[in-house]
Structure prediction request, 1039 residues.
Amino acid sequence: MTGSPYAPHTEAETRAMLDAVGVDDEEALFDIPDAVAFDGDLDIPARDERAVREEMAATLERNDDVVEFLGRGHHDHYVPAAVEDLAGRSEFLTSYTQYQPEVTQGFLQALFEYQSMLVELTGLSVANCSMYDAATALGEAALLADRVRDADGDRVLVPEHLQSGRRATLERYVAGADLAVEAYPMDDGCADLDALESAVGEDVVMIYAENPTVRGVIEERPAAVGDLAHDADALFCLGSDPVALALLREPAAVGADVVVGEADALGLPVSYGTGLGLFACREAYLRQIPGRLVGASTDAADRRAFTLTLQTREQHIRKERATSNICTNQAWVALRTAMHVAALGPDGLVELAERCVREAAGLAERLDAVSGIEAPVHDRHHFREFVLGSDRPAPALADDLLAEGFAVHAIDEHRLQACVTETNADRVEDLVAAVEVVA
Amino acid sequence: MFDVPDDRQYLESHEWASDDDPVRVGISDFAQDELGDVVYVELPEVGDEVTAGEEFGVVESIKAVSDLYSPVSGEVVAVNDDLADAPELVNEDPYGDGWMLEVDADDPGAFDGLLSAEEYRAQIE
Amino acid sequence: MTDYDQARWSREDDPVYESLLAEKRSTTVEVEGGPLPDDLTRESVTLPDPAEPELARHYTRLSEMNYGVESGPYPLGSCTMKYNPAFSEDVAADPNGLVHPDRPDDTIQGILELAYGLQRDLARIGGMDAVTLQPPAGAAGEFTGISIAQAYHEARGEDRSEVIVPASAHGTNFASAVMAGYDVVELPSADDGRLDLDALEAAVGDETAALMLTNPNTLGLFEREVTAAADLVHDAGGLLYYDGANLNALLGRARPGDMGFDVMHYNVHKTFGTPHGGGGPGAGPVGVVDDLAPYLPTPHVRETESGTYETYEPERSIGKVHGFAGNWLVLVKTYAYVARLGEEGLRDASAKAVLNANYLAEQIDFEVPYRPFHHEFAATAGDRDAADVAKRMLDYGVHPPTTKWPELVPEAMLTEPTEIESRETLDDLARAFNAAAADSDEELEAAPTRTAARRIDQASAARNPRLSWQALDDE
Prediction:
């Protein structure tokens, strides 16, 4: 059959519709000048469903089958089948943004619940119902800081240990606002508070820190970073994720004004970097927060009902004065994350978080026992992952490990990084054995 | 038909300035109707300077956002704090309880963009 | 006429439709004696704690108080709510594709091959020379494309400060240009609803970095003077940007590259059938002509001489617009859709979309002032309030069109049925429009009455924002 498999028109129907419109054929409906009409070939053959599935499956099989011990901003946790199942319901999956709230109460309530979970985990009053990913959320946080800060300023301070994609995206976002991004040094994996204090000045709009850091280090004194920010009237932005937030000190308790992060550590399996930007902030910034917000109200039957609110911040009303250009976000991923948090419950979530600490410590200890390896490099507490030092050049060691079927990060000449969660904990012994061979 | 009291002057952009001293500023009945339910008003602080013809704040409804322009130049001496909790006052009583600012004007009535009630009435028809 | 009734379980004096998870069962867990010292950890966590059957019932009920493309007609103008092929979900879930983005290139040849293939297919469809898949949404694509234009001008030592945007453009166009640091010059439409070339000529100059256009425009009209506009902008040294929201009208019949566009974005969740997911995720790949290819975000995918695939950093890359490679799960579904339809299917989808819009406009009792339109049209509700008409249409089991936009049409109802509707469903949809048109003002103002919730008080939601269950507790 030719034509779109998803257009249901029979020839007879098409004929009848053309008659109703008063034209002889479909082409007559197009008002495209000859000069710009395309009559060439796109060279894209149609295939039937089975052929496409087979072709794509065969292509993806060309990915090597390795056991990943990878993290650094994108993490793998087991997603319960119930999440897949429930989120996949077509009423959720194939719906649009809730511009008609009366008929989309279900998704609105689910997003309201997602926002609430983040409020609990961050301790801040407001969470939006998603940004694209942690990197773009960080960019938006810097722009928010620039908007709300009274004094002039043009510097954004970020930790030296920062995933390169986050740094680069932040730089792209702030270029339009003429802000400059500067890194402050680390002290054995944590923020170097003395160096940070020297770097801070009146012209700083925001200080960013992560907990845990990209290297998995748990910040010892995040509140001190917050104090430095506030002394300079700068915003304190903390980066984290929902699993870590269940265990570590709440960002609100350490003075965070804004929290960003990768919320799809829960909700999605590892997915080549597909993200969910967590964004929460203090009540004071409510009218400056980017992205969509779901609020509670009442309806004509006097019942509680949910709706998108404070839309005057957004592009479709405020256009060039919008808080952000964001329109389509990661709503369906937020739905999955909320389902996952609910499926775990607070017990399951705290247990998972504690496991992330134990597994990392355990793997580090096993690797440290291997001759030629020092783990962890930083004498700190770790969450999911840690940096290890190698006598052998790290890139070569990482390559050899790949040949053995294991993927770790090589982060510089003599350092690697390994991430362990409940999804690969059962392969730890095999990883250690392989490291023993190649170290 | 929209209410256009004679005891004050207007801007083309729908703000009004009273004849008192300090000058009171707000938006017209026509403006509040155009906006729909007002949900938020962003106002300057007491002590701030405003300039005739320039923006002093923003008024938001559910579906629209509008800049607010000052009819006079001078120092803000009072701001209507009631609007923070009850922005609907702008809709209910735009010329009375829905007032926005009081300004110690340098030269009230000097701004040549000011319209008389009659001129403004003609404009909105 | 459909006797629509959306699911609802509340009893007469229930104050809510469905309890929140936190209201059903919530537990506080003390965080103590764990593997970390006390000063590094929080004291407790309070979160919902449903058993799995409760979880399933909660979300199933919520889903039944929702409405998707698979529920019924969804003619939202500018959104292209087409059917999302079931099999594409399976492809996205293929475990072989669920890998970490930091994997070395030679270990993920499958992913890179799909990425390269999609880059190539989109380039062909748009008449572009190179495509990046990194922007995670259409607006992100706009920001990326305008940033590329900016980098291009800067590299040539030109300091241009303005981006021209038609008044009828989508709000994201304005916001994206400003995010990139530009001032926006708004261009009024001509009387026929199209681009006003004279106004454009007056607006274009040394400060013009780019003109952003949607074609067909947001009224569904083809911009006949697009090449003249391209010439004006190019002669002034500016670039031409294409907003791909309405690409569904052109597939296989016209390509932005042939009209003089230098850079464009695609909305894959519109034109290429990936699910809207209640507001996302989507993706906004950006296509560029050769001169702009060096500025693409990093990393980009290319084929090597030996026929393998590798990522590389374009020599003058603008950097990154996403932490990793974009919304990969969405891109996989895009690839699947394009492969399934092929060139013939895409061309036919476009034709049927345009036929459906024209047929529907014929059947409804509302006027459509601007013609000839393509895949979408802006009807006017006349002396009725478009928002009220929309609420009443919900009672007839359909999702209403986009309302009150573009502003050029008073009481606009921007309607885009897409190619997936049959004549019968279009007739049903038309009946819903017409029934609402015939209903009294009272019935419109009281609507909706057949949806799970009744008309919601927007003013109080905005005046007194309560954005979490914690905020509800505080009252």
About this structure: Chain B touches chain A at residues 39-40, 42, 60-65 (CB under 8 Å). The longest strand of chain B covers residues 55-61.
